[in-house]
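Input chain follows. Return C-alpha cells only.
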Amino acid sequence: MVLVLSAEAVDRALDLAGLVDVVDDALIKQAAGEVERPHRPHFPVGAGLDGDDPIGTGIAMPAYVHGADHYATKLVGVHEENATRDLPTINAQIVLTEARTGLPKAFMAGTTITNARTGCIGAVSVRALAPEPNGEGLTLGVVGAGEQARWQSRAIATVATLSDVRIHSPSDSREACAADLTEAGLPARAVDTPRKAVEGADVVVTATTASDPVFPPDALGAGTLVVAVGAFTADMQELDPRVFERAEQAFADVPEEVAETGDLLASDLDADDLVELGVPLADGYARESDDGILVVASVGSATLDAAAGETVYRRAVEAGDGTEVSL
C-alpha cells in the first residue's frame, strides 16, 4: 500500500519550527558526506506545444540520507508563465521508497514541502550566522514578494526576534506579501525601492527569479548577512558581484551547483571559494570582524526534500492522515 498525501494533508503534517532542526541536521550530514545525492538534471519541457521554444523546466531530484527508512525522488516543474494563469510557478511531487526493500511507500504533494524546506535555509543561516541584534530584534530586508518571501520570513521568525520586516518587489505584490506576513504576526511593511529594503538591515533575503542584480550593493551595511535563494541556473542572478567582493566569507548549500549559477558566474569565485553551509551549522563560525558581510547562496538540495518528506510522512502516519492506495 502507498500513502497518498494531498497538499491539505501535507499542510496538516508540516511543523515549520520543527522543520528548521530537520533541515539543519540534513545540511550537516550532507557536508559530512552522509548522503547520496546524484546530480540533478534540468531539462526544457513544452517545446512543440505552442511553438518551437520550451515553456518550462523539468527537474528530477533524488536523495538518500544515511540511516533513513526511505529515500526520496522529487519531480519539479518550473513554469514562469503560470503567474498569468493564476497557478503556482513551481509544482512538485515527492515519492518515498523503502530503503530496505525498494517498495513505494508514499506519494505526496511536494510544493509546500519545497517552499518550507527552502524557507528553513534562511532560518538555519540566521541562527548560525546573523549578527547579534541591537535593541528589540533583527531587521529583515526581503527582495521578492512571492511565496518564498513569505516562507523565508516566517521560518526566520521561528529562530529570531524580528523588529522590522521590509518587503520590496517592483509590483504591488509587495503590499499583499506584507499584509500576509502582518496577519501571521510579523512586523512587516512594504517599501517602494530595494535600497529601502536593504539599508540598515541585519539580514537581507533575495527570493526572486531575476536575471539581473536586485539591489544596489552599496546599500548593504556592515555585518549584514545576505541569504540568496532565487538563482539556480546560469541565466539567473540576484547579487551584484560587488556583494561577493565585500564578503568576508561565502557559504553555499551545494557549492558545485551554486558555482554554476549566474550569481557566481558573474563573480570571481568558484566552488573552491565557497564553504558548504553544513560546516558552520556543525562547527559554528567566528566572524573575523563585526563589520564583515556574510553571504549564503542556495540552489536547494534533494537532501532537504528527503529529510523533510520523511518527517511529514511520519507525522501524517501518526495522525492517521492521508489515503492508502494499492498500485
